[in-house]
Amino acid sequence: MQDIMNQIRSLIDRQDNMAVIDKLYIPHPYSSRPAVKFVLGAELYLPNINRVELREKGIRFLSDYWKCFPEYINKILLRNRTRYIRFKGDPTDVIIQDCNKYLKDLGYGASLCSKHNMRPNDYINPYKAGIAISREKDFRPSSFEAYFPVCDEKTGIPNYQLLLEAILKWAEFCQPIHGLAGFSLTFDLVQDSVYALPIMKRFSGFNLIDDDFIFEIDNVYNRIKCVNWLTVLSTPLIDELGGIELMKNTLSLCKIHEYNGGVVIQAGEFPLLGDSHTGEIPEPYRQAAQYTKPIRFEDYDEGLFRVPRDTDAVMETLSWIKRFD
Predict the structure, then answer these.
(1) What is the rounded average pLDDT for all residues in the chain?
(2) What is the Cα–Cα distance from 168 to 166, expressed in whole angstroms?
(3) Which of 3, 8, 211, 272 has its CA 20 to 30 A from that of 18?
(4) Beta carbons within 10 angstroms of residue 12's beta carbon
(5) Segment holding 9, helix H or strand E
(6) Helices in the chain by DSSP H: which ranges?
């Protein structure tokens, strides 16, 4: 673990070979497989609207994600299936046909990934996107999520601009209530998130995307999890914070990208990691966090991630979401 942290620290210092981070991973302590990897990740939370409309947004989201990586994305997991199946070309028709099998008021979920494996016994895919649409009488937000390798495999150029353009496009047609995107941690098995905690506590720029947030907030729509490099806020949340002009005047270290329905706050030119060991908190992230603090969700019952035994999950969660304060 210490070796991984030292390598990440070195990348922070150089910022000239971020492709290395795609090859790093936290090993599982009891097997040869990776437990946690480092990626770019995005999560969007959608309002309780007509389920037909939500499905249309979800299908378009997955199709657009495929267009980001058409050479790699070739496997799909459909509703009520336990295994991914192969497909060729645009997956839109496959998802539509599967959607049409189920009543409109039912929830729906599907996900895409690649056959990509970087090493033996490696089940953590850097190319992955999924939708989870709640059923008609379930008032919790629906969620869309996507993962990107940090850098393009062929050129080694970071996928930062690709992520930014994708988020702006998705925010426009999905109309989420809020969302996040930036450096993220990912894993194959939910329980393996416990091994991510030391990295999360040291490098504040890493987000962790997990369904636990949906279960914790229940039917609370107007509160965000935290901030990241990109933070999506819908117009009602912007209004609650005092309006767009106040936002622009307050967030002097951030770029504000407006779209029809909200904004995407970009905290710095590119994603940052920070380092708690040296007291480094990325200032654009700190500014965005302080500005959005009034709309941050903090009423946790069980916490957002797995923690070691004899560790308070709620206290760790609250500490983590306040890491930029």
Answers:
(1) 93
(2) 5
(3) 211
(4) 17
(5) helix 2-14
(6) 2-14, 51-68, 92-99, 160-174, 197-202, 212-217, 235-240, 244-250, 283-292, 313-321
Helix H or strand E segment including 296:
none
Bridge partners (DSSP) listed for residue 146? 42, 129
* Residue 110: strand, helix, or coil: strand
Residue 65, classed as helix, strand or coil, is helix
Nearest Cα to 21, choosing from 206, 229, 163, 188? 206
In whole angstroms, give the CA distance from residue 225 to residue 214.
10
Which run of H or E residues covers position 79? none
Rounded CA-CA distance 205/227 in Å is 9
Instruction: Classify residue 51 as left (phi > 0), alpha (psi -120 to 50) or beta.
Output: alpha
| DSSP states of 131-200 | EEEPPTT--SPEEEEEEE-SB-TTT--BSHHHHHHHHHHHHHHH--SEEEEEEEEE-SSGGGGGGGHHHH
**In Å, what is the CA distance from 231 to each residue of 5, 44, 164, 220?**
26, 10, 11, 18
pLDDT digits over 138-153, tens only? 888 999 999 999 999 9
Return the DSSP state at 104: T
Cα–Cα–Cα angle for 304, 308, 312, rounded to 5 degrees:
60
**Are 43 and 83 in contact, with CB atoms under 8 Å apart?**
no
Domain locations along the chain: 2-321
Distance (Å, whole) CA 130 – CA 26: 23
Alpha-carbon 179 to chain mean position: 8
The model carries a pTM of 0.95
**Lookup result for tokens 């299936």:** 81
Tokens found for residue 268: 């710095």
